[in-house]
Amino acid sequence: MFRGPGCFPRASLAPAAVLAVALLSSLSRCSLLEPQDLVVSPLSQYFGTKTRYEDANPGLPPDPEAPRRDPQLLENCTPVQLVALIRHGTRYPTAKQIRKLRQLHGLLQARGSGEHRADAAAGRDLGAALADCTLWYADWMDGQLVEKGRQDMRQLALRLSSLFPALFSRENYSRLQLITSSKHRCVESGDAFLKGLWQHYHPGSPAPDVADMECGPPKINDKLMRFFDHCEKFTTEVESNDTALYHVEAFKTGPEMQKILKKVATILQVPVNNLNADLIQVAFFTCSFDLAIKGVKSPWCDVFDTDDAKVLEYLNDLKQYWKRGYGYAINSRSSCTLFQDIFQHLDKAVEQKKRSQPVSSPVILQFGHAETLLPLLSLMGYFKDKEPLTAYNYKEQMHRKFRSGHIVPYASNLLFVLYHCKNAKTSKEEFQVQMLLNEKVLPLAHSQETVSLYDDLKNHYKDILQSCHASEECKLPKMNNTSDEL
Questions:
Q1: How deeply is 402 buried, as exposed, middle or buried, from its count of CB atoms within 10 A (0-12, 13-18, 19+)?
Q2: Contacts of 260 (CB under 8 A, 6+ apart)
Q3: CA 396, CA 378: separation in Å to the nearest integer?
Q4: Which of 113, 282, 422, 453 has the most CB atoms in a 10 Å sphere around its CB?
Q5: Crossing angle between the packed helical segments 147-163 and 184-201, to the nearest 10 degrees
Q6: Which residues, listed in sequence order, are joined to residue 83 by a DSSP beta bridge?
Q7: Phi, psi (5° rounding) for residue 183?
């Protein structure tokens, strides 16, 4: 348990007066629901896919229209097209997570006196403080975008339009192309991004309804943005296969998680047999949701220290690795249609420039999920560790590349920027590409160079562009198994 302001010292380690002050702090924070100035927690960098964008991308400028320019961005060439894959902004917990939180809250409220209570400081402890907290999460929230998520999108729009002013010019506004997942949080993220652009073009003027904007609202395309739902091999062999996440389940009952389980049972004064890894994880995520949505340090955060957070982050990363990353080949191969779609846009822009025609779609914005971005990045070879993440190598993976919170926090974005270099010495050098992840230049996975000739990049990914066909990749084999485990 970290010892920052407002943390709860265990009764056996602190005087009653100190305990009372800590508990008063926790209780007062139960009702603190209004957003505050940015609150930083030592746990913030370990929340995995529930990480705030600003925690994964520190140093964001306070003025989104004066963005920090990555010095590795090309300067001597003109950007002619940007294709962006954007994860939705900050959201509420899902209904499933809310039900688990209610279950845990009910355990705290049902605690008996005597053997399971360590009364101190006028009969109060952290478990009692949390039991007295009012749960403000409701089933209707179910993964919906929150106001902080809309702000994430508006500010991202302002930064990108300031970073690439020629592409996001007022003249190009009607030519913006927006695609989204059907999930409400993605549709609303696209709407909020457009309203951020409106603010850029018309400062101080209220934005109209997105349906009345020149470019129109985002178009739903789940075959692109939720490709995993349309891949039978993935849904059968991974999504619905109880054994596919073996390492996740094994880690839940492993020594690292069992140590946390016993510790939390002691802190909350509940029988350890009443707890499980899922309830521990939902308590940890509640800390992250309160921080991300309301900007407050929740008393749930007082249950954990950074060592606990690292273990819980690994549990989350194991799930992402085996379900969305390198665990099974179909996880990434199912995204090849999306990858090919990106290059079809780039190809079209190259052909139009070669014919001295204006680029018909200078900006393509695609709004999806962490589950959209992680498979695609894995397909391209990013964040691959030498050894697979397993239930048994937590210590060896302490410095792993695959950390989902650093890769796909809320509002994460992967940009493909196509440049036209009119002073190029050869025709091959005329078109070049850079990729940015979360607004920072992403070195090429195969060379670590920060820029690639367009033809060279296509040649490197030739197998995916020419030989990866979703209809074949997603076809179930005659024998149903998970033999493609890496």
A1: buried
A2: 280, 304, 308, 311, 312
A3: 21
A4: 282
A5: 50
A6: 364, 416
A7: -65, 135
In this predicted structure, the answer to whether residue 381 has a pLDDT above a threshold of 80 is yes
Residues 6+ away with beta carbon under 8 Å from 33: 136, 294, 296
What is the β-pairing status of strands 78-87 and 413-420? antiparallel
Considering only CA atoms, which of 259, 264, 36 is closest in space to residue 130? Answer: 264
pLDDT digits (tens, 9 = 90+) for 296-318: 988 999 999 999 999 999 999 99
Neighbours of 464 (CB within 10 A): 18
Q: Give the closest residue to 103 by CA, choosing from 235, 338, 283.
A: 283
- The phi and psi torsions of 311 (rounded to 5 degrees) equal -70, -45
Closest CA to 186 of 320, 98, 86, 95: 86
Extract the tokens encoding 137.
């999460």
Longest dimension (CA), the chain: 82
Selection from 233, 302, 273 nearest residue 28 by Cα: 302
CB burial string 266-277: b at 16+ within 10 A, e below: ebbbbeeebbbb
What is d(CA 156, CA 412) in angstroms, rounded to the nearest whole number?
A: 10
Pairing of strands 177-180, 219-220: parallel
Phi first, then psi: give them for residue 206, nearest 5 degrees: -65, 140
Measuring CA to CA, how many Å separate 362 from each of 78, 128, 467? Answer: 12, 57, 27
Q: Please write the tens of the pLDDT for every residue from 96-155.
A: 999 999 999 999 998 854 444 444 443 358 988 899 888 899 999 999 999 999 999 999
Rounded Cα–Cα distance for residues 230 and 244 (Å): 18
Spatial distance between the Cα atoms of 363 and 241, rounded to a whole number of angstroms: 39
pTM of the prediction? Answer: 0.90
For residue 328, give the DSSP letter: B
Three-class SS of residue 484? coil
Residue 230 and residue 471 in contact, taking contact as beta carbons nearer than 8 Å: no
Of residues 335, 320, 431, the one with CA closest to residue 85: 335
